[in-house]
Design brief:
Structural class: alpha/beta
Helix content: 25-40%
Number of strands: 18
Low-confidence stretches: 1-7
Number of domains: 3
Largest sheet: 6 strands, mixed
Strand content: 15-25%
Distance between the termini: 18 Å
Number of helices: 11
Strand order of the largest sheet: 1-2-3-5-6-9
Order of helices and strands: HEEEHEHHEHEEEEHEEEHHEHHEEEEHE
Radius of gyration: 31 Å
Length: 456
């Protein structure tokens, strides 16, 4: 998912020639200089008494449709009502967490199976070697951060083979919010067989850090946008059966000192102005309709009689949707006449225009006076509570809920659900929630943002 907010730098993926230089700087060499002419596949490097096979994870593992289908089947039963599901391993029962790992480690398992054979072949040819190591470089599997990848690889190696003595896991991770940029170059060696030593790991680590320094220097010397294809880490997501599944990008540090109101987020909804959330009807009681009709006998918008007027009200109510609710606002003659007298185009104003004016005034007051519930000490007896779950970098994946809350004298609360699990970002949810508040004569609005999966 491209993100124009974070497109300042672009990195070149780590290549095999890069690692050739790292290994050489650490005192190692190619295991088979004639590798392109060999029938028997071998490992890549010899360093000290160790044979090392390099495996680069270049593809995004969650881009595979079969893997997406398995993840959807795993998470959907636990999130049956949600239009957006977060692929959070920690939200699963322990038994399902193991299934989650099996799904994501597919490319890792394949790489280990191939590496095991290559290492065995090179050990036969380099009789002085004693230790077999697989070196994983994460170039493209961004759905897994370094710690998660390290854990999966170590677990898989321990379970799949006893012919690998250790693993190295490294990569370059670029995080950006368009102002702050963070580059992480982790390198970790994990011994699998504790009887086998890898004394050159420190030398290899230093050579890796030298590669990082050279790469970052070269990056800073190039013009923005001229680098190659690897951009910052972003959310990974896919859609199955009208449900979006999201693996949020990991946090990039503490709160931004530049973006005081939070780091900028995408808004894939395309909604940039306040959407119409109310289908407003200026309602007239029988007495008020009679007064209007006596004073305005030729106005067709009043219809022929009050029963016909009520039919019009029923027809209008049928046009309402979940996102544009029907709101009936009572109108009286005196207030309408006063408002019309203050208007410029009073020749064409109806009770519906007046009711829309009243609605806009009320929703503006509710929005302006709405407060974060976490920041208030006392609560009214009755209020509208609007909760938004912020999910990742895109507002289009946020989920919102609203309920009328009644605070009872015994300390308990009663909840009347207004809407739930709606794909609405905070500002849109506030507009819709306030419209519901007006429709139900609720005079106070409180809100809360659940940032469990927010991009911070």
């Amino acid at each position: 998912m491209p993100n124009p907010l974070m497109d300042h730098f672009r990195l070149r993926p780590i290549s095999e020639p890069d690692i050739d230089q790292v290994v050489e700087n650490a005192g190692g060499k190619r295991a088979h200089p004639d590798a392109d002419r060999r029938k028997q596949l071998g490992a890549d490097y010899v360093l000290g008494n160790c044979v090392i096979e390099l495996k680069a994870l270049d593809d995004e593992g969650l881009a595979k449709p079969e893997r997406q289908a398995k993840l959807a089947a795993l998470f959907r039963p636990l999130n049956s009502d949600k239009p957006v599901v977060v692929l959070d391993r920690g939200s699963l029962p322990s038994s399902e967490q193991r299934n989650f790992d099996r799904i994501l480690e597919g490319p890792i398992k394949t790489a280990i199976s191939k590496a095991r054979k290559q290492l065995k072949q090179s050990r036969l040819e380099h009789e002085e070697t004693m230790t077999s190591i697989i070196w994983f470089i994460n170039n493209g599997y961004t759905a897994l951060d370094h710690d998660a990848l390290l854990k999966l690889i170590a677990h898989r190696v321990r379970n799949d083979t006893n012919e690998v003595d250790g693993v190295i896991v490294s990569g370059c991770y670029f995080h950006s919010d368009s102002f702050d940029s963070f580059f992480l170059w982790p390198f970790e060696y994990v011994p699998i067989n504790l009887d086998k030593n890898f004394p050159e790991s420190d030398d290899l680590h230093r050579a890796w850090n030298d590669l990082a320094d050279r790469s970052m220097t070269a990056l800073m010397q190039q013009a923005p946008g001229k680098q190659e294809v690897k951009g910052p880490v972003v959310d990974t997501q896919f859609d199955i059966d009208n449900v979006t599944y999201v693996k949020p990008a990991p946090p990039i540090g503490g709160k931004s000192e530049f973006f005081r109101n939070g780091r900028p987020r995408l808004n894939s909804t395309g909604i940039t102005t306040s959407p119409p959330v109310g289908l407003v009807f200026g309602d007239l009681s029988f007495g008020q309709w009679t007064t209007f009709h006596e004073n305005l006998p030729n106005e067709q918008w009043l219809r022929t009689n009050h029963e016909d007027w009520k039919l019009g009200r029923a027809d209008a109510a049928k046009q309402a949707t979940d996102r544009q609710i029907f709101i009936s606002i009572p109108v009286n003659w005196d207030a309408w006449v006063k408002w019309v007298g203050q208007s410029r185009d009073h020749q064409h104003l109806t009770t519906h225009h007046y009711a829309t004016h009243i609605f806009q005034e009320r929703i503006s007051v509710l929005l302006n006076e709405a407060k974060d519930i976490d920041g208030v000490k006392t609560l009214p007896n009755r209020y509208m509570l609007i909760v938004t779950e912020e999910i990742g970098q895109d507002k289009g994946n946020d989920i919102s809920h609203a309920a009328i809350v009644v605070e009872n004298s015994d300390g308990t609360q009663d909840f009347e659900e207004i809407f739930s699990n709606q794909r609405l970002f905070h500002e849109y949810a506030m507009m819709l929630g306030c419209a519901h508040a007006i429709a139900r004569d609720v005079e106070v609005v409180r809100w809360h943002k659940n940032k469990t999966y927010a991009w911070i």
